[in-house]
Amino acid sequence: MTDQTFVLPDVGEGLTEAEIVQWRVAPGDTVAVNDVIVEIETAKSLVELPSPYSGTVGELLASEGATVEVGSPIITIGSADATPPAPAAPTTVPEPSDPGGAVLVGYGTGGTVSSRRRKPAERPVAASVGVVAKPPIRKLARDLGVDLSAVTPSGTAGEVTRDDVVKHAEQASVFRNIETPAWGDVREETIEVSAPAVPAPVASAPAPAAQAADAREESIPVRGVRKATANAMTSSAYSAPHVSVWVDVDASRTMELVKRLKASPDFADVKISPLLIMARAVIWALRRTPMINAAWVDTDAGAQISVRHYVNLGIAAATPRGLLVPNIKDAQGMNTRELAKALEHLTLTAREGKTSLADQSGGTFTITNIGVFGVDAGTPIINPGEAGIIALGAIRQKPWVVDGEVRPRWVTTVSGSFDHRVVDGDGISRFIADVASVLEEPALLLD
């Protein structure tokens, strides 16, 4: 038997390193070509690596949590010259909805990649044993920190669906501050930022005096998505002169439209929210003020402004792995239903950690929906390569003057930051006013 060494490949994202998140195999396991052997995290996404060899796993050369450079050996696999037929063993048929299992270019053969999960004894037992849910739904629940046993299933066979998990996670985030937790005995608590994780329980008693100094502070390696986000935000904040504006908006008609769309049979299988109307409003307003959709570009011949006549609409997504900004390509050509489906797909893919580099590249303008966290307004940092970002605040019922009378209306705040090198104050003001106009009267989209 000869050992073959598998090195960390370039997964097609142009990145130089990745973190070993989880080994799917252990020494002594038998693997076939295209069996998933390890899950890695790059600065952009989670990637499952299939094995290019068949044989017996020898040594795992990188531990979970380690950051490995591209080209470094990570595993050895023994390949027998004459491999006897393997005994029949139960196989797991991947569910059609499983988002994982893409074959990397240059590794393995075509077809579906099966995912080798650890033996039950090697994996932590979830608190949701007995709940009917497909493997990808269970993974989504783990990533979002959702206990499946607490989720009300809506599937026809009593199973928990993807929407059930997402809705439960959203409700948990909205109501997270209703009960104020008691102060613990530990001064600080650390959450691992390099991979999805659940905060460790707070210690019930203070550390001994000899360990007190160590418990007061802790260093966290900055890597993966957090490192990429920090570099991008620092570069943007200190290279583009940001100017921020905001306006309060009566969004009552937007809320009425959302309610009607939810009741429409044409949108029965699509998630509808005010973000959909916001996206339509932004696309409409970008068409009227194209410079908002431009970008400042430094070249050897001097600076220039690149104006894009298409909209790759970015949506800032808070995920278990950190902030991601995937974008919807050519959103300007989509109707309302198509845009709703694209938003839903983008959001679910981001939360599952399956967003590709291509989906995060080439954006022209970004929306951040800070309202889902109960925040009214903010001054967001522009995504690099763009000239602006707009934030949709929480939509609340407030007193509002209508025809000289104070009435309860659904009110929100639209705020945004813009690159003042590219756009002047009048263009910024027109754009924000246009977005506000559509939220106040969605019928403007019919022009």
TrEMBL record:
Pfam families tied to this protein: 2-oxoacid_dh (PF00198), Biotin_lipoyl (PF00364), E3_binding (PF02817)
SUPFAM superfamilies, per database record: CoA-dependent acyltransferases, Peripheral subunit-binding domain of 2-oxo acid dehydrogenase complex, Single hybrid motif
Key word Transmembrane helix present: no
GO CC aspect terms: cytoplasm
Ranges where the Peripheral subunit-binding (PSBD) domain occurs: 132-169
GO molecular function annotations of the record: acetyltransferase activity; lipoic acid binding
Domain Lipoyl-binding: 3-78
Entry's EC annotation: 2.3.1.-
Cofactor(s) needed by this chain: (R)-lipoate
PANTHER family tied to this protein: DIHYDROLIPOAMIDE ACETYLTRANSFERASE COMPONENT OF PYRUVATE DEHYDROGENASE COMPLEX, LIPOAMIDE ACYLTRANSFERASE COMPONENT OF BRANCHED-CHAIN ALPHA-KETO ACID DEHYDROGENASE COMPLEX, MITOCHONDRIAL
Class in the EC hierarchy, top level: transferase
Keyword Acyltransferase listed: yes
Region span, Disordered: 81-101
The protein's name: Dihydrolipoamide acetyltransferase component of pyruvate dehydrogenase complex
Family: Belongs to the 2-oxoacid dehydrogenase family.
